[in-house]
Amino acid sequence: MSSYSVTEPSPRQKWVAGILVVGYALITILPLVWIIATSFKTPSDAIAYPPKTFFTPTVEGYVNVFTTRTRLSTEQLQALGEPTTWYDKLVRKDGLVISGPSRFAERFTNSVIIGFGSTVLCIVLGTAAAYAFSRFKVPLKDDLLFFILSTRMMPPIAVAIPIFLMFRSLGLSDTHAGMILLYTAVNLSLSVWLLKGFIDEIPVEYEEAALIDGYTRFQAFYKVVLPQAATGIASTAIFCLIFAWNEYAFAVLLTSGNAQTAPPFIPTIIGVSGQDWPAVAAGATLFLVPVMVFTILLRKHLLRGITFGAVRK
Amino acid sequence: MAQIRIQNVRKEFGAFTAVRSSSFTIEDGEFFMLLGPSGCGKTTTLRMMAGLELPTSGEIFIDGEEVGMKPASQRDIAFVFQMFALYPHMNVRKNISYPLVSQGMKREEVKTRVAEVARILRIEHILDKPVGGLSGGDRQRVALGRAIVRRPKAFFMDEPLGALDAEFREHMAEELRALHDRMGATTVYVTHDQLEAMQMGDKIVVMNHGVVEQFGRPQQIYDWPATKFVAQFIGSPSMNFLEFEGMIGIGGSSVDLGGVTVNVPAAREGRDGRLTLGVRPEHVKFRDDAAYRGRVSAVEYLGTTQIVTLSTEHGEVKARISSAQLVREEELVGLDFDARTLSLFDAESGKALLSEGNEGVLGHG
């Protein structure tokens, strides 16, 4: 490791550094801005060339992503009478009527159930395993830890076919439980290793003090270790959630009608009347929200999790 | 308040034996020191008494009750750790009241107890502060507070002053001793610092390689070490060892040290072979007509005394003499040893030979 410079950077250096950071931030945030902007455009604005920076915003994309629509003839439309709701009015302009809700809400709910479900399971199992590895004499500890790590050594999709066959014979295909188990299995190695590092850092004397103070081993774990491992647990949870939330390949392969998550669904939104980019962008924008909120809430811990091991206290 | 008795306690960690068959008794109300170099088994012994480690074999009695296999929470003892082990997510008051809350004590009573402890330790002003920002001394006081608030049968302390600055250690040592005298609770204190042990302890156990080398009051241990290890470990500079080939019979009161007759306390056991004569530096006197000679090789001035290093026929000898005495390097001087204070050791086993002087104080534990 190189040593840190002890001299305070000059104001000019700070300015240069600031400009670089802002520039980098702008570049990385541009796709995000693009998606959010597109979600508020009309289909024609979305594909306009040159791209429109200023446009009249509309929530049509959001209406489209939540509904299915049918094109009717002018006579049929007149026969229907005046549209009653604001979203009805919105689609009526294009000669369409809303024929029912789309499956987006359902897919989104699936994503929430599977993403958070696997994250919770990963944290519970990971914390217990990490605590055991950190504190007790586990036979073949090093081999076990290496085995756990080795499950991460190839891309998960490499085992897609065996998993597909396994899921089919176990009846787990296209079920929430199956996807939760799968994402937990993939994430568990990360969670055990990360959490073990955090728990290793908590001096064992805290628990011993609690044991002497009259607590049982479990109470000591619950009341002393867990509060101190909160940072580690939070950052591990973010990593697990982001993976499970964004996972696409397994979701395409193993889910369809029942447990399909949002990632494989969003590309299918491309609509009945040409390519409905605003609807796709609206789906993507909504899809971003939960992870973004979760990450912003826990961002302090996340930073600590990313720099974990690199910085000595 | 309780007597603690350790009987044939042994602890193995896999193939490594940390403690080999230790036995000793700590009387009710004693300030008891477990002294030894690092890795000697003193901390393991303490942790077995506290119930943080289970002995491989042997028995531990606290207040007459065999507790060897009981968990720590059932032994009614308090432990002060070297790194204090204050819960970082709680403030001072919560830390101190934690052991009481675990017993399900009423809130009112917890409050009274904590207030009382805070008064004794003079930490009332920091009760509502988080432990993170406290100085080392205040953390130490809070850790002590957490220990004494329970009024346990015994206190176990594992190098509690180890993390403090040298300057502050002495102050805290005095404070600890005063606290013990006021409370009168049995205290077992682990340290590797022989000065700390001598200064604070009523009794000392000296351990090495998992074995109890000697057990006794500080002065007994200093004056009549049971083994060469104890002689060397305690005292600074440590005891001089003059190794020679000779013999002493039962009742004999002199040995032949390379042709010079040296008087020693009357022997209670005889030995023939390689012997070691042990002399504390302060018991070496300069006398011009003494038959045993040494050449001055170095002089170290220490204020009221000076340490003179001499080379003799039997190796290096250090003498602590008054600074008033003028000593020149390379000077040849006669050395006189204070006969009543000398120890004889078997050079092979390192054990002290029984004599008129040490009989009755050689506790091998």
Describe the structure.
- Helix content of chain A is 66%, strand content 4%.
- Among the domains of chain A are: 62-102, no CATH class; 105-265, Orthogonal Bundle (MetI-like fold), CATH 1.10.3720.10.
- Mean pLDDT of chain A is 86; it is low at 309-313.
- The longest helix of chain A has 32 residues, at 104-135.
- Chain A is built from 16 helices and two strands.
- Chain A has helices at 11-39, 43-46, 60-66, 74-80, 86-92, 104-135, 141-150, 160-170, 176-200, 205-212, 217-228, 230-246, 249-254, 262-265, 277-297, 299-306, and strands at residues 67-71, 96-101.
- Chain A has a two-stranded antiparallel ribbon.
- By secondary structure, chain B is an alpha+beta fold.
- Chain B has two domains: 4-223, Rossmann fold (3-Layer(aba) Sandwich), CATH 3.40.50; 237-346, OB fold (Dihydrolipoamide Acetyltransferase, E2P) (Beta Barrel), CATH 2.40.50.
- Helix content of chain B is 23%, strand content 35%.
- Chain B has eight helices and 20 strands.
- Chain B has a six-stranded mixed beta sheet with strand order 6-7-8-3-9-10, sandwiched between helices. A five-stranded antiparallel beta sheet of chain B has the order 15-19-16-17-18, with no helix packed on it. A four-stranded antiparallel beta sheet of chain B has the order 2-1-4-5, covered by helices on one side.
- Classes of the chains: A mainly alpha (313), B alpha+beta (365).
- At the A-B interface, α10 and α11 of A face β6 and α2 of B.
Query: How many strands, which pairing sense, and closed or not: the largest β-sheet of chain A?
Result: 2 strands, antiparallel
As for the CATH topology of the largest domain in chain B, it is Rossmann fold
Overall number of structural domains of chain B: 2
Question: Span between N and C termini of chain A?
Answer: 15 Å
Strand arrangement within the widest β-sheet of chain B reads: 6-7-8-3-9-10
Mean pLDDT reading of chain A = 86
Structural class of chain B, by secondary structure, is alpha+beta
